[in-house]
Amino acid sequence: MTSKKILIIEDEKNLARFVSLELEHEGYATEIKDNGRSGRSGLEEATSKDYDLILLDLMLPELDGFEVARRLRKEKDTPIIMMTARDSTMDRVAGLDIGADDYITKPFAIEELLARVRAFFRREEHGHAVERAENTSFRDLVIDKTNRTVHRGKKVIDLTRREYDLLLTLMQNVGDVVTREHLVSQVWGYEEGTETNVVDVYIRYLRNKIDVEGQDSYIQTVRGLGYVMRERK
């Protein structure tokens, strides 16, 4: 099996090298961009070559991590885990808003980072394994699993990978309340005890894209539990 390729865009050379060695010990292939202009050179590397995952520092010279992610998302959908010492909620939301798939705060235990990387690839492999050539629908929303596309009536809804997986999980459980913990496990691949605020952020993204003004939301909040897709009585 071909090793998963991970690009590390990080200007702290010692940290980048340490992370690279640990990832390679786990069986991944890595590339580091840490030459003093890592923001710009990292973006060039990410857009010119194909990687399975990018570990992206937020505080970079020339181009910061936010700008790197923003520009990369215009060209590619390569998954991104942001690594940063800035742990405010606004920074996390900003990172997710521009397309980051996950966010880990420095200083972090290397075991946590490795677990998140493993969880990401495990979720990806599981997602591909359960794909079926059939449609899933709720009201006028239709998911075409073969092409991983979403339609509301005749309108195509443009979703990110994570938004698609979240919507699919909810639509596969129509009528049942899906807890935040279960969504974190199914969509992000994390185990119990992981912070679940990210679910609320992505539910907001989904509602902004799929809901119709003046009509009931497709996704209903069950206070204290999670979310459900069901017809209102």
Query: Could you describe the largest sheet, including whether it forms a barrel?
Result: 5 strands, parallel
Give average pLDDT, whole number. Answer: 85
* Rounded Rg: 18 Å
The coarse silhouette is elongated
Read across the widest sheet, the strand sequence of neighbours is: 2-1-3-4-5
Q: What portion of residues is helical?
A: 40-55%
In short:
By secondary structure, the protein is α/β, with parallel strands linked by helices. The protein has 8 helices and 12 strands.
Q: How are the SSEs ordered, and which strands pair?
A:
Layout: E1 5-9, H1 13-25, E2 29-33, H2 38-48, E3 53-57, H3 65-73, E4 80-84, H4 89-97, E5 102-105, H5 110-130, E6 135-138, E7 141-144, E8 149-152, E9 155-157, H6 161-171, E10 178-179, H7 180-188, H8 197-210, E11 220-222, E12 226-228
Parallel strand pairs: 1-2, 1-3, 3-4, 4-5
Antiparallel strand pairs: 6-7, 7-8, 8-9, 10-12, 11-12
Give a written overview of the molecule.
It is elongated and about 55 Å long. The strands form three sheets. A five-stranded parallel beta sheet has the order 2-1-3-4-5, sandwiched between helices. It has a four-stranded antiparallel beta sheet with strand order 6-7-8-9, with helices on one face. 42% of the residues lie in helices and 20% in strands. The protein is α/β, with parallel strands linked by helices and 233 residues long. The chain is built from eight helices and twelve strands.
